[in-house]
Amino acid sequence: MSLMLHRAPSSSTGRAGSLTAAQRRIQRRIHELGDWFQNLDLEGVPTAPQHFLGNYPQLKWRQIAPALPERLDGASVLDIGCNAGFYAFECKKRGAARVLGVDADSRYLEQARFAAEVLGLQVEFRRLSVYDVGQLGEQFDYVLFLGLFYHLRYPVYALDLVVNCVRQRLVFQSMLRGPDLAPGMQPAPDYDFWNREPFGQPGFPCLYFIEQCYASDPTNWWVPNRAAVEGLLRSAGLTIVAHPEPETWVCEPTSPPPAPGESIWHRELAGTL
Ligand SMILES: C[S@@+](CC[C@H](N)C(=O)[O-])C[C@H]1O[C@@H](n2cnc3c(N)ncnc32)[C@H](O)[C@@H]1O
Fold this sequence. Notes:
8 helices, 11 strands
């Protein structure tokens, strides 16, 4: 990339409202890289100033960040569905030793690599689907699985694969719809076959299937309610340790990961569940 990307303080904007030559180059490249989902601040130039959720995901991060250690020195981080790298960059700024961002869309990865260059942050970006995270063959201290669950046609399978990569903590975020948990509502150890009543209770765990589009997006497949997220996280072998904002959970592996061939997926295939 031939752009001159020397770091300049954000205050390098010349007269109010005007951009420096370096900022104009950054702005041009931002446009060349297509539509951005994440609004990053690249030397004072925003990448998605018109985001429909406001200053996203900065607003989300402000709520999630206090639930994570202020310093991540020495830690490894995997950001799955990293998009333009916003969360990966925030972890690197907290001192993480190694940060890997993966995404299925090379257009977003190009944005992420450009942003890393402008921000002067050493983050690795790789094209990889969440369904292939096992190919990495390693665990990470922190795994971020944010804004991706509901975009997957096989979300529960993906969650099981992701959990295998978690050494210390998983940070999970999903769009939620449907009623919140009813006070005191707990999953029963069993339900009688003839009792249909629990399924009609507001807040009973539910994944809503979207056959066509949601918000004009055909990749929105399964939208959980809160009880479904919390039940799925527990069922995937995690303990919820924090819930810093309505759509986000911080979890730790409850027990050591299952031995090879002993995961729920393998046991289901083997008929030994
Ligand atoms: C709604 S965005 C969320 C981005 C970011 N994690 C955040 O919360 O701001 C969903 C991201 O997941 C990526 N994605 C979609 N399907 C994927 C898959 N199968 N594996 C990895 N990434 C995927 C998309 O390309 C997109 O960058």
